[in-house]
Each structure stands twice: as C-alpha cells, then as structure tokens.
Amino acid sequence: MTKREIKTLLIGLDGATYDLLDPLVEEGIMPNLGKIMKEGARGILKSTIHPLTPPAWTTMTTGRTPGNHGVFDFIRVDRSGSKPNYTLATSADVMVPTIWQIADREGLRATTLNFPVNFPAKPINGVVIPGYVPWSYLGRAIHPRPVFKMLKEKGVFKASEMSTDWQHERKAVQGLGENQLEDWVNFHIVREKRWQDILLTLMEEEPCELMAVLFDGVDRIQHLCYHLIDRETRDQYQTEDAKKTTELALQYYRDVDNYIAQMIEKAGPQAQVMIVSDHGFTRSGSRIFYANTWLEQKGWLDWIEGTPMDDQGRVALDENTEASTLIDWETTKAYALSSSSNAIFIRQSNAPGEPGVAPADYEAFRDKMIEALYDLKDPDTGKPVIKHVFKREDAFPGAYTDRAPDITLMLHDYSFLSVLRADAPIKDRQVPYATHHPDGIFVATGPGFKKETALDDMYIADVAPTAIYSLGLSVPSDMEGKVCTAAYDDAYLAENALTYADVEALKGDADMSALDAEAQEQIKERLKSLGYL
Amino acid sequence: MANISYDDAYGVLKEIFEDLEDDLDSDGGELAADSKLIDLGMESISLVYLVSELQQHYGLGDALFRKMREEDKLLVDMSVGDIINSVVELGSKASA
Ligand SMILES: [Zn+2]
Q1: Which of A153, B39, B80, B84 has the fewest Cβ atoms nearer than 10 Å?
Q2: b/e map of A45-61 (b: 16 or more CB within 10 Å)?
Q3: Rounded to whole angstroms, how far apart are CA atoms A486 and A456?
Q4: Source organism's superkingdom (chain B) (predicted)?
Q5: What topology does CATH give the domain A8-60+100-284+435-509?
C-alpha cells in the first residue's frame, strides 16, 4: 500500500484574532505565522450568529448553519418535560455529516483532534480524539481502539495533561486571581505540547488525507489574560505576577507558532493548509448583565427561596450546582440557563393553568421582551446594554430551529450574560475579562493558494466546502457556505474543476432541499440585515 | 434492537473501566454491582460521558438520560448494578 499523503491540514486556533496575532507577529513572537500570513492568503472569517465555540466549530466543520446542524451551546436543552432539562451536547446532537465523515464516505482517511461536540466518536476511517472530554474519560473517547493503545505505548498520551478539567474550567469562566493566572497559562502550555506530540505521531503512524487539530488554549488564555497579552494594555499591569503571566502567555504563542511550522513541515509540500478560528476576541466592558435578575424584575422569573445574591461578579455557579436548580419552575415564564449561550428561553404552557405563556400569547410576549431588552440602559452610563436581539427563526432558520433558544442576545460589549441572582441587573465586573468577537481568522497557504492576498470577509460555513474542494471531492450541494475560490490561484481552479454532489441521492430522506445560488444569496442578505456581515 | 443481557452490559462497562484503568489509578478489579459509579475513580462529569457512550453503543438515543430524569435519579447516586439494569430495561422495552 502506498503511504497516504496529507492533502488538507486544518489548524484550528480557538478564538484567534488578528487584533492580537498581528502585533505578536510584529514583535517577533510568531515569525512562522507572520511569514505564512504575509506570503499566503488571509481574511476575516465571520463567526456564527452568537460566536460560541460548539456551534461555531460545528458550522466550520459541516458547512451548515446552527439551525441546520442542531448545536447551539455546550448544552442541549430539552423542553419536553414539565420543566426544562439539559445535558451536555454530544456528537449525537450534530444532525449533519462533518467533513471527516464526508471524507470517509468518499474513501479517504481523516483525523480530528480536540474538536468540540465530537464525543462519542462517530466511527470513521482515520482517528478521532474528541475535545471537551474530561481527563478521566479521554482515554476511552479515542477512536479506534488500537490507536489509543499505540499512543499509550509511545508515551504521548497523558490524559491528565491534555484534557479539560471541568472544575478548573468552571472556575476559569469567572476569572482567576492574578496569582493563579500563571498556573492557568502553564497548564495550557503543557497541554498544547501533548496535542502537538500526538498530531506529529499520528502524521507518522496514521497518515490521512485530511488532518485537523484544534488548539483551544488560545481561547482559554485570552479569556483571562487578554489584558496582559495586548500590547496596548499589558504595561498597565506591573505586579510581579502580572509580568510573569505576560511572559508565559507570550511563550504560549511562541510555542503555537513553532507547532504550526513543525506540522506544516511534517505534512509535506503537497499539503494545503488552512489556519482558522471559530471566532475572534475582544476585551469585555466593565459591567455584567444579570439576565435572570432582569427577568425577575420584569416579573417573568422567580427564584426559589434562599437563592443567594452574587456579589463577586460571577456569570455562573462554580460548584456542581446548575442555574436551573435556583429557579422556581412553578411560576417562571422566561429564563437563561447558560452564560455561554447568551440566550433567553420562553416557556410555553402545555395546557391552561400550567406554568408558562399560552401559545396564543407567545409572539406578543416575546415582542414585548425584545422591546424591553432594547430599552434597557445601564443606569451608570445611560448607554444601551443590548446591541442585537435575535429571534430564533431569524438567526437559526432550518430543520432544527425548534432546538434553538427563543431569543439570543448580543451585548454591546460582546460579553456573556450572568445567569445568577444579584441585587441589580447590571453590576460591575471585578476582574479583567475578555470575550468572543464575531471576527475570526482564515489564513491559507500551500500549493494552489494565492500568494500575498488579502481576502474579502468570509463566512465560517465557507471553510467546510473549501476543505472538501481541497481534498479533491465534490462539494455536497446542501452546504450553506461556499468554496473560497478567491483564495485559490487561477491555474489551480482551472485544473481542479469545482463540482457539487447531489446530497439527496445520498440521503434518501428528502427533508431538506439543496440550496441553490439564490438561497445562498438570501442567507447572506439575512445575515447582512441582521447586522452580521 | 435486540434484547440486552445483564452480562453483555456488564462486559461493556468492564471494558470501559479497563481502558481507563491507568488514568484512574484503579486496580482494574471486578466491578461490584453495588459499587457506586462515582467511587470508581472518575470525576462526576465523566459519568455523563459514560452514559452517552452506553446510549450510543446500544443505539438508545437519549433514552438513558430521559429514564434517569423521569425517575429522578442522580448519576452520583447510581451503582454499577443500577446503570446496567437501566440499560437492560431500556433494551427490553425497545425490542418488545
Ligand atoms: Zn471558541
């Protein structure tokens, strides 16, 4: 058997933004990325409406918008019972095929490392190590089994150093004390090294045409340390702890830069490489919106007796207690369940007398809430708090709109809301924090890609069809993104005709019609009208 | 879907814990039916992943989570025997 060559290498940097990368390149901290960005094609990659890791990466790797792939948050909310319940979103919630599955279907091999909502692994010819799996389950999560054994034997698999520690993670969402930030950055330095070792080992032992890896320390570090990384602000923090953290964080980017060079080198000169982020990043404002507290003031939510008031600027509880346990489900009509989703759910009563809003009153109720949200001003500054309120049918049209929250908020400073109880709906943040921004990155390099080219803004759904085209396959006609032909040189496009595969023939059930050019235009228009493109 | 036997479900669970044995620093001994899952060395969050895997393995959709919710059972309270019996019960319902 001839050894398989890597055709397409997809490098994910969760939350990477040009706002930090460009200055880091200028400072000489990321010379390899600098060279690639200068010599290759680069552009802004617009994230999903609500730029959040699970829906955004799922759109990136399926070419479908959340309304059609079914993932909206880290959790999947089930509203069928008498009160809302939720579980972690899993691969079973991804309702459309990923690029890895498509490659597999076409007889190619694919490897995917550390991507969210990939557990339990959907079996493919290749390797799946899902992301966001707690360390004590990660070993079991690897597909196929012999690869797990091989990685253990080679000594590159170290579960406790590679994986998500959820207790740690929950704390980190709240911000850490300055003296804890060093540990946080160090943890991610070690962690990315582990993933890099695994990737390089797999490139050698299990070569695949499509290889994809996600480094998510970028996101985790930026949430807590953006102010210490950003050249504009880092000099304002001069304690020993702060200076040490800055040094370590810069070391982290240096490492990632090296890893990028190593993996491109290892992939070989024939590989087309795309470096992408699921969303960008920006500093949060100084205030926190306590959505459930606001709903309580409006008379739409009740807390159960004894629910404590948050006075520490937290967005969620850090113990194993979920926000849903604080809410009185006898009376509550609307609620936020997770900080990450920035969403408010409206409860519809199943029968007269049951809690919630009667279905006939739903539209009016929701409109009233939206109006009130737009009217909401920060009493300290007089400025509006909410920039956009998205109705689910506008933001997430598709086969799975009904799984989406009723409304999704974009705050003026792009912050995540708090689900906790407080003595006022808008309060001060207590430690510096950074948040997701809609503008991610897309950088392409390798044979066939244009040189020294600035691309127009792309949409995150464009990456999947571009990856499929890069593999030499026909692009499934139901993908909502389109191949980024602007990134390819003319000779390559002429030699490699772009073709489409009729997915109806593959699927059997005709629940969704293929998107023609007109429908794609409509989606773009809708995103524009929502202020998103 | 075929019936699921207690022994089969036990075998699946056993294999899972064998794979994790090195990471969990467990001795890989027998899984006693009355052992609490949480006492086998995992973080509580991993139990959610365990249930997801059992659901996928037996093609149960999210029936196992639903069943636990309906019965108001918490994962941290469940024993090895409880989880196996739940899987067996769902298997017999689905094939009935
Ligand atoms: Zn992300």
Answers
A1: A153
A2: bbbbbbbbbbbbbbbbb
A3: 8
A4: Bacteria
A5: Alkaline Phosphatase, subunit A (3.40.720)
The class of domain A287-428 in CATH terms is alpha beta
A139 to B65: CB separation less than 8 angstroms, yes or no: no
Please report residues of B whose CB lies closer than 8 A to that of A120: 49, 52-53, 56
Extents of the domains making up chain B: 6-95
Contact A167 B43 (CB under 8 A): yes
CA angle A171, A216, A249 (to 5 degrees): 75
Distance A188 CA to ligand 1 centre (A): 15
What is the per-residue pLDDT for B96? 57
What CATH number labels B6-95?
1.10.1200
ipTM field? 0.81
The model carries a pTM of 0.90
Strand, helix or coil for residue A86? strand
CB distance A25 to A31 below 8 Å? yes
Split at pLDDT 50, 70, 90, the class of A253 is very high
Residues at Cβ < 5 Å from ligand 1 ion: A 14-15, 53, 219, 278
Q: A92–B52: do the CB atoms touch at under 8 Å?
A: yes
Per-residue pLDDT of A115-137, as tens digits, reads 999 999 999 999 999 998 888 88
Residues of B in contact with A145 (CB under 8 A): 19
Residue A114, amino acid: N
Q: Where are the domains of chain A?
A: 8-60+100-284+435-509, 287-428
